[in-house]
UniProtKB/TrEMBL annotation:
This is Predicted arabinose efflux permease, MFS family. The chain crosses the membrane at residues 58-75, 87-105, 111-132, 229-250, 262-280, 292-311, 317-340, 361-380, 386-403. It is found in: Cell membrane. Its main location: membrane. It comes from Jiangella alkaliphila. InterPro entries: MFS, MFS_dom, MFS_trans_sf. It is a multi-pass membrane protein. PANTHER family: INTEGRAL MEMBRANE EFFLUX PROTEIN-RELATED (PTHR23513), MAJOR FACILITATOR SUPERFAMILY ASSOCIATED DOMAIN-CONTAINING PROTEIN (PTHR23513:SF6). The keyword DNA damage does not apply. Pfam families: MFS_1.
Amino acid sequence: MTAVTASRGAWDSRDFRRLWTGSAASTFGSEVAELAVPLLAIGVLAATPGELGALRTAQFLPFLLATLPLGLLVDRRRRLPLMIGADVGRFALILVIPIAVWAGFAQIELLYGVMFLAGVLTVLYQVADFAFVPEIVTPHQLVDANGKLAAAQSANEIGARGFGGLLVQAASGPVAMLVNALTYLVSALSLRGIAVVETARPPASSRPSWAEVTAGLREALRNRFIRSLLGEATTFNLFNEVFILGLMLFTVREVGLSPVQLGIVFTAGGVGSFLGAWFGSRVTGRFGYGRVLLITLVLGNTAPALVALTGTDVVGVLVLFCAVFVVMGVGIGIANVHAVTLRQAALPESLRGRVNAAYRLISWGAIPVGASLGGVLAGVTDGRTAMVAGAFGMALATLWVAFSPVRRLASIDEAARLSRTG
């Protein structure tokens, strides 16, 4: 294992810089696709609200089906080759979408299949990435490393979503998906340059037992800090999917926002997330870890409720939504960095992959449920109703942390110590 000394920042590590570059490249493409996929489904394939919900369900269903076995795989194998393989696989899969559109055989069912398979590889990459970061930085550098990774993702939200909207409007949805595919290839090439010698995995039996597969789930539910964060994340993801699906339908079909204007709204959220992720660690020492996490969750999770005030005037919608997304981004940007760091610090290395897999099984598994719920709700009512319902549901997520021991934590070190002692 190679790591920089505790007195230096994570950025001084050549391996971390390569990991950061790969992460930045792939998240740039993913953020482009975040707008391009639903806009392609709506504009090119004339998807109904139900089909749009089914598409999002297919994209995130792997978090329900594949996380536990992939978590065990990550704990039993070297993580870096798994991440590179996931990138190469996603490159090949996403490339199918523009080819299908240009060749004239694209259908919504094809999109379901491609996004499902790409989702499986996304699960693998993210579970491995979470467990791999502590291999190349010291424990004292985790907040700094996670902050820089989160800032890169937030910066991509600033530029990539706006760029995605511009690509869809100026070129086409298939061109935007081609860009998405190429970024996974760039990520794989960057990761190949990492020279870290990973910690040897313990010997494993030829066939994993059920106890091995579910160990991460048991630990996630047993650890009082992880359990509270898991409840918050699951509730947020469930209602956020209803919120976003309703927002897409409301702004495109009821208000008439262009892809570029919709990109501006998401870019505003990226600005807030970038500011929160980049500067969030500076306020922790001053106000305490748990207090900062709780306050920023209140800020980020409650701000979306302001969309209930919106009308249908294009300028008014743009102004209100941009303001909401900036505030939401700042709160969630700070909270996410602290939540990820707490999850890494409070877990033994031997269980990180499986606990993260269990965490994503439950929290990200709520996304396809929310997508299906949002599609049904928007179909029965309209996009605005689904959007407002989702926004108020997101506000409830903060209660998990507000009534937990997390809010009393003074530092990450305290969380690690208390987790070891039970």
